[in-house]
Design brief:
By secondary structure, the chain is mainly beta. It has one domain. 0% of the residues lie in helices and 53% in strands. It has a seven-stranded mixed beta sheet, with no helix packed on it. Strands 3-6-9-12-15-18 form a six-stranded parallel beta sheet, with no helix packed on it. A six-stranded parallel beta sheet has the order 4-7-10-13-16-19, with no helix packed on it. The radius of gyration is 16 Å and the shape is globular. The relative contact order is 0.12.
């Protein structure tokens, strides 16, 4: 079951929208929106959100994803283009290329793909010029 809730953050006048695709729900087709999305069920199709995407434990996504930030605890097969952070939690299964401002992969996560982000090498790995 898909649910939408509105939450207001103290100190701001804007309300944030969060939608949930519940466990046991399967969505086929394009999903897009301005707010945040939590997936506990299955989604097959392109996902484009201006907010953050969370794929919870038991959640499954088969598609390319374009979001502000993403937290993956379930499974994802597809490429991710995030303007913010990408976090792959322990126990997650991910296959696809990841692009984000920062990318974190927890120990115990399964990942197959390419990573594209800006980072600085530690001093001991930088060549002296």
């Amino acid at each position: 079951m898909a649910q939408t809730k509105t939450t207001s953050h103290s100190g701001t006048s804007a309300a944030a929208q969060e939608a949930t695709i519940g466990s046991g729900t399967r969505v086929r087709g394009r999903v897009s929106g301005d707010g945040d999305l939590v997936i506990l069920g299955q989604v097959e199709g392109e996902i484009t959100m201006r907010g953050d995407l969370t794929i919870g434990q038991g959640g499954s996504v088969t598609s390319n994803v374009e979001v502000r930030g993403i937290e993956i605890a379930g499974s994802l097969e597809g490429d991710v283009n995030a303007s913010g952070d990408v976090h792959i939690s322990s126990g997650a299964r991910v296959r696809g290329d990841m692009r984000g401002a920062q990318i974190a992969i927890d120990e115990g996560a399964e990942f197959a793909g390419r990573l594209d982000c800006d980072f600085e090498l530690p001093a001991e790995l930088q060549s002296s010029r």
